Amino acid sequence: MNLTNDEVLLGPSPAPQHATNRWGHRGSSATMTDVANIEIVVAHQERATLRVGDVFLKIDADQRRTDVEVEAMTMAPIPTPEVLWRKPPVLALAALPGMALGRLGQPSTTSSSVWAAVGAAVRMLHDAPLPPRPGPNLDEVARSLDSECTWLLANDVLPTQLVTRNRQVAEVALRPWTPVFTHGDLQIAHVFVDGDEITGVVDWSEAGQGDAMYDLASLTLGHQGNLSDVVAGYGDDVDLDVIRAWWSLRSLTAIRWLVEHGFDPSSPGCEVDVLRSQV
């Protein structure tokens, strides 16, 4: 469960030379002689993803993340991209048909029935046998929240009242949970659909044993209006207060990473707006 794994920018921090927009699949393309168009999907200091035709090339400085991703895709009971080949540090994946369920900061045009189908797929994942990788424990999450809130206040990134109130909301998530098979970064752009069909879920490098409510919160972050549809498909054992708490916790703990990697969590509909909506 990576609490700071979106991609975005805030304040005066300069954008890294190779940073791209947070949503992926929308970046500019570079053309090379006798090579298909190369699209930079995402690129920052830790990793990069390129698209060449119908192949995605993921380059990661930490091959342990790639190990986790390949194993999780093998174990997951829901559709995932086909692994074409792996030659460290590169992992080649086949493109999925269809388009992303939505984008953070943009209104969703996907029907309620598709959101419900995604909720059912997430439930199937959570009911599957646990993967070997443990997620962060409660103490680690609490320390991360404390550290990031301290940084936000010390650097005057956000108003004190906004941070304080959202920290109070976030602390509801700091309770024991029964581990399930979680994606760990189930943001809306990582789920692909084609019409009413879910064609696959991408980016499994944070998969592991974690809190089911965190996945549901990640999926609906910035799209709170679709939570009821997701819950309708997911079924029982949903704690709405904990999901709302994870919205605050994920947003608070993401902002420093986003700033330092040259992206903007203050863009309309993104993390800062999520925090404002919680007050």
- Overall SS class: alpha+beta
For the record, the CATH class is Alpha Beta
Figure out the total of helices: 8
Shape: globular
Q: Would you identify the CATH H-level superfamily? A: Aminoglycoside phosphotransferase (APH), C-terminal lobe
What is the succession of H and E elements?
Answer: EEEEHEEEHHHEEEEHHHH
Radius of gyration: 18 Å
CATH hierarchy: architecture: Alpha-Beta Complex
Which oligomerization state do the chains in this entry correspond to?
single chain
Q: What's the helical proportion of residues?
A: 25-40%
Cα separation of the termini: 25 Å
Output the strand order for the largest sheet: 1-2-3-4-6-5
Word description of this protein:
- Helix 5 packs across helix 7.
- The protein starts with 28 loop residues before the first strand and ends with a helix.
- The chain has helices spanning 63-75, 112-126, 138-154, 160-170, 212-220, 227-234, 240-260, 271-278; strands at 29-30, 38-43, 47-52, 55-60, 83-87, 90-94, 99-100, 180-182, 191-194, 197-201, 208-210.
- It contains eight helices and eleven strands.
- Residues 1-21 and 23-34 have low confidence and may be disordered.
- The protein has 279 residues and is of the alpha+beta class.
- The protein has a single domain, classed as Aminoglycoside 3'-phosphotransferase, Chain: A, domain 2, CATH 3.90.1200.
- The strands form three sheets. Strands 1-2-3-4-6-5 form a six-stranded antiparallel beta sheet. A three-stranded antiparallel beta sheet has the order 7-9-10, with helices on one face. Strands 8-11 form a two-stranded antiparallel sheet.
- A hairpin with a 2-residue loop joins strand 9 and strand 10 (197-201).
